[in-house]
Write a structure and sequence with these properties.
Blueprint lengths: L22 H13 L4 E4 L4 E7 L4 E8 L2 E8 L6 E7 L2 E2 L9 E3 L2 H9 L10 E7 L2 E7 L4 H7 L3 E3 L10
Length: 169
């Protein structure tokens, strides 16, 4: 797409910022980004995942489906350095009682491979347990690794799934 001049554009911003000026530029940038986005597939031990890199933002996105669950990860970091990624299941960030649910990968393809192999994200509903504390009743999910110890630490009871991560609306 060739660069265009917009005489009424008095400020610079992406997508919704600034709210009034440069709408034509924001629309053109968004259309260019969407039309040039390429999704690649990674077949892993646990899932087939798709990933894409958004060059204008320096981020990448990973999306996988396992059974009825959708797992996604958003990664980012400075060019040429490892990326930091977070995980969600069925479009909800996980409440990780195992600790931080972020992980680091060499790049977006490496992150997608690790998610597809079940090392991160796609294993985050393997273990679920309910527990009660001073703030009420909770249900938490995470990887099988460390599950028994974490459930015991919270005096929890293992359950098949947690309702907040249910794929149905």
């Amino acid at each position: 797409m060739a660069a265009q001049a917009f005489p009424d554009c008095r400020s610079v911003g992406l997508f919704t910022l600034p709210p009034i000026h440069c709408n034509a530029e924001k629309t053109a940038l968004n259309e260019c980004t969407v039309s040039n986005t390429i999704w690649e597939n990674i077949n892993g031990a646990r899932a087939t995942c798709s990933f894409t890199t958004v060059a204008t933002l320096g981020d990448c996105y990973i999306d996988c489906t396992v059974g009825n669950n959708n797992f996604s990860s958003q990664c980012g970091g400075p060019a040429g350095l490892p990326v930091r990624c977070n995980c969600s299941v069925n479009y909800r960030w996980l409440d990780m009682y195992w600790g931080d649910n972020s992980f680091y990968a060499n790049d977006c393809a490496d992150a997608a491979r690790r998610v597809a192999d079940g090392e991160w994200c796609t294993n985050y509903v393997d273990c679920c347990f309910e527990f009660t504390d001073e703030n009420g009743k909770h249900c938490a999910c995470g990887p099988e690794t460390g599950c028994a110890e974490t459930a015991q630490a919270y005096k929890g009871t293992r359950v098949e799934k947690c309702p907040q991560y249910d794929p149905s609306p």
